[in-house]
Design a protein that fits this description.
This protein is α+β, with helices and mostly antiparallel strands. The chain has 2 domains: 89 residues, Hepatocyte Growth Factor (3-Layer(bba) Sandwich), CATH 3.50.4; 308 residues. The strands form 3 sheets. The chain has a 5-stranded antiparallel β-sheet with strand order 1-5-3-4-2, covered by helices on one side. Strands 7-6-8-10-9 form a 5-stranded mixed β-sheet, with helices on both faces. The longest helix has 14 residues. It is globular, with a radius of gyration of 23 Å. The N and C termini lie far apart (64 Å). It comes from Chrysochromulina tobinii. It holds the Pfam family PAN_1. InterPro entries: Pan_app (IPR003609). This is Apple domain-containing protein.
């Protein structure tokens, strides 16, 4: 190995990878299972011809040569099938010369500073021209009677569109009438995910009339069918009157998405932030669902897992994301698990059931490699507003002050939606006391 200046880091692998080669000119990881998987030396040689490859994790047992641009060398993984059989090797630093015919990597540091990044250091990436072309937003809104039995949130959808549409490749808002006409290529019908429930949720009773938001994985899968491979799709909740922080970060959405991917490394290519530190599965997921979906030996660990928050969901188009979202949709189709009832013998600390985010959380909790870091947001959806979702882990207990009314108004879009759903009314500070039936929200100057 010495002739390649490569060095063994240790036993284990950097992170799970998809079953494809990845993008050597712009990607972060990939997996080779051809001739390069026959030996560690061939694996290293293949890495040298891949511009973005700095580390490889090799397993002769699994016939797998996985490459990585970055690697948490102090916390290698060894779980999963054949996990202990992997060896991770540092093949090159960013500054090393490339093999002949290898493609040159993009600059890692700030433009013009000429500095290579050190191991574990992350680039501060300025906004690049065209980055928004790979980001798409989707949301769902109810219209209220006579169209559905939810709250009238058309104006809210218009505000969300006006805030985000100028900064993304596409923005699509679906109402219940539209969803009922949709069908996924695999046969799942929108009418089924919106089937009314007879068991209202404690904190969101109106959502029972709309299927307890099983529509989220459905619409993510529907939109993934039409966007380009590798593009990001972001689902945003629509009730910006109740949660004005949903409007934050619109101009930096693409930057934030890339930052999150680099920081959390979602193994399923799906990211959902966590709730505030200390909010756990045992509090917001009915215990019956845990007992049905989790092996008894893991109940205690899963009950202590930090619950996810389903107001923002990011998926990167690929087979891994599609498979995870289908599994989430499948669980949401099981009403015994999705609905608040039944829940016999609940955990002593159980508070209430959060249907769709509970089932997402139970899936994630059973994938120890789901994220490299478990992050929550302190209101704003920007990199500087993240904190650990695990109590006792660094900034988990950091103060998280609510945004001021002045800050909230700065998030409002300057112009109304082209659909004309947003008009000025007496709701200057997005107070929740405003009448939802007439919520046509105020604009900033």
């Amino acid at each position: 190995m010495a002739k390649y200046n490569a060095s063994v880091v240790g036993a284990g692998y950097c992170a799970p990878t998809l079953a494809d080669a990845g993008m050597c000119d712009a990607g972060w990881q990939g997996s080779w299972d051809g001739p390069e998987a026959q030996s560690l030396e061939r694996c290293v040689q293949r890495c040298l011809a891949c511009a973005r490859c700095n580390f490889v994790s090799y397993s002769r047992v699994n016939r797998d040569c996985s490459w990585h641009h970055a690697c948490a060398v102090d916390s290698l993984n060894d779980h999963g099938v054949g996990g202990p059989t992997y060896t991770t090797v540092r093949v090159r630093d960013v500054s090393m010369a490339l093999a002949p015919n290898a493609r040159c990597p993009r600059a890692a540091g700030r433009p013009g500073n000429g500095r290579a990044l050190l191991d574990g250091e992350e680039a501060e990436r300025p906004t690049r021209r065209g980055r928004a072309e790979t980001v798409h937003v989707v949301t769902f809104y109810s219209e209220g009677p006579p169209h559905d039995r939810g709250k009238p949130l058309s104006a809210h959808a218009g505000v969300l569109e006006a805030a985000f549409a100028p900064h993304v490749r596409s923005f699509r808002a679906y109402n219940a009438r539209e969803v009922r006409t949709l069908r996924l290529r695999t046969g799942e019908a929108g009418a089924d995910v919106l089937a009314e429930s007879s068991h209202p949720a404690v904190k969101n009773p109106g959502l029972a009339a709309l299927g307890h938001m099983a529509v989220k994985p459905f619409l993510l899968l529907h939109r993934l069918e039409v966007i380009a491979p590798g593009d990001w799709l972001i689902f945003l909740d629509v009730n910006v009157l109740k949660h004005p922080e949903l409007l934050s970060g619109a101009r930096r959405l693409s930057e934030t998405t890339e930052w999150l991917w680099n920081r959390t490394r979602p193994s399923a290519d799906v990211f959902m932030p966590h709730e505030a530190p200390g909010k756990l599965v045992k509090h917001f997921c009915k215990t019956h669902a845990v007992r049905q979906l989790v092996a008894r030996a893991h109940w205690e660990r899963v009950l202590e897992y930090p619950i996810h928050q389903a107001n923002r969901i990011i998926a990167r188009k690929g087979e891994s994301a599609r498979a995870y979202l289908y599994e989430w949709l499948r669980l949401c189709s099981l009403r015994e698990l999705l609905e608040p009832e039944p829940n016999p013998e609940p955990h002593p600390e159980f508070q209430w059931h959060t249907p769709e985010q509970c089932l997402f959380s139970l899936l994630a909790a059973q994938r120890p490699e789901m994220y490299q870091r478990n992050l929550a947001f302190c209101y704003q959806f920007v990199p500087g507003s993240t904190r650990s979702a695990v109590l006792g882990d660094g900034a988990a207990s950091a103060n998280c002050p609510k945004p001021s009314s002045v800050e909230i108004r700065s998030w409002l879009p300057r112009r109304a939606s082209r659909h004309g759903r947003c008009l000025v009314v007496q709701c200057p500070e997005l107070r929740t006391a405003c009448n939802h039936a007439h919520a046509q929200l105020a604009w900033s100057a």
